[in-house]
Amino acid sequence: MQRDNELEGSISSLCQSTYLQLLVLSNNNFTGEIPYCLGESSRGLRSLNLGNNGFSGAIPSSIRFLTGLTDLELSNNGVLGEPLLPLETCTMLSYVHLAENRFTGSIPHWIGDNLPALIYLRLRSNMFSGQIRTEFAKLQSLQILDLASNNFSGAIPTNIGNLSGMASSQATIFFLHLIDLQVYSKGQDMYYRQSLDLMNSLNLSSNSLVGDITEGIRDLASLGSLNLSRNCLTRKIPWSIEGLALIESLDLSMNPP
């Protein structure tokens, strides 16, 4: 673990570390592409944190070999391409943080079937496009979903209320391997670490979503934060939102009249 050390250069030499299980290099000055050999040689890797560096290029397709990977943190880099495609075989993922990059593409149709353990998904501040798939509703463990500041369009799926991880009246406690959690709520970034009782949140703000705010929202009874601002949604607040008894932060602003 070498975080917050102002290290720089390439990380290709790590490809010889065939027994790596935890790799945390966040908050440094590493540059260049994430080497293909990393996924090929370190197949036992369970936690990969390269956040807050200067990486560029695309996520190597060799990530598909990391079938035991549970945590992936690549936020705040300059990585591009379609990052979710190599993750199709990473079926144990519970934490994916890819915010603040140059990623493009759409949400793959297999996301609900292939990532059943997903608890935290943050894709904000990229260039993703397309519709928010109904397959998201299959992610029964999902508690934090942040798709803000992208180019998503279409309507909010009517079956979004099937996200049972956000519907449970009892908050879930889970452990993430030394990875910082970041949830944008109440106008500020809030950080959590390790084993915590997290506030369930749904952030779809700053996209091009249209239509009504679906009644399915009412089933997400344990939501603590809901942000649908800066879209093209109908401004009428559905009665169902009144049922969100645990809501602490609600932002529906900047939708047209």
From TrEMBL:
Origin organism lineage: Eukaryota, Viridiplantae, Streptophyta, Embryophyta, Tracheophyta
Domain of life: Eukaryota
Alphabetical keyword list: Glycoprotein, Membrane, Signal, Transmembrane, Transmembrane helix
Name under which the protein is recorded: Uncharacterized protein
Mode of membrane association: Single-pass type I membrane protein
GO cellular component, one term: membrane
Pfam family, one: LRR_1
Organism of provenance: Zingiber officinale (Ginger)
Compartments, record wording: Membrane
